[in-house]
Specification:
two-stranded parallel sheet, single chain, alpha+beta
Length: about 220
Amino acid sequence: MIKAVYFDLFFTLINPEYLDASEYSILGITAHEWELYAEDEVLYKERATTRSLSAKEIIDKIIQIMPYDISDEQKRKIQYCRDERMQNALLSVDTQILETIRELHKQGIMLGVISNADIIDIIDNRSSNIKSFSKGKLDLSGLIEDECSAVVRFGGYNNKDGILECLDKYVDSYDIIDDEELAIFVSAKSEHEIDRVLEIVKRNNYSESAKKLLKID
């Protein structure tokens, strides 16, 4: 009797395909050339085994072994594109994969994920989402499909336009309920979309704090 099934993450459960705006297009090189540097054997091992490396440090290390002059703005865009690509992959899981996972879960089979993902691949609480799913505590389809509303607050904000631009891009609707503290009621296709906005705001220093005060399922 099968008691447990373990999946590889990339190209098994999810497919992190390059988007129109990609890491390599920012530099004007091919995807193959980008991957030669990004998957350098020594660096690849360090990325997969060292959780102390930040996303910025990983991008910096990739850039350091490339024979190009790359600006800080290009580095920022590369990191943004990489994060967008991984998030898109997690939100675009094939329906047949979801159905297979759901059926295995119904049969009481323990599910697990094995991956050499680095900190960029699991940013924005994705590691805890996967971990919870693998223990059977989270239905992955819920992460992808369940609508969610919440009250979020951006304390000490310094770029209101940037925050609202993120909301326009990632959530279905929002309503400012306190302009001074920038408390906003938001509705999105999933809680993950709301968390994505908070992460982007914090990463770009649009506000001193970005918190979800109340979640309404």
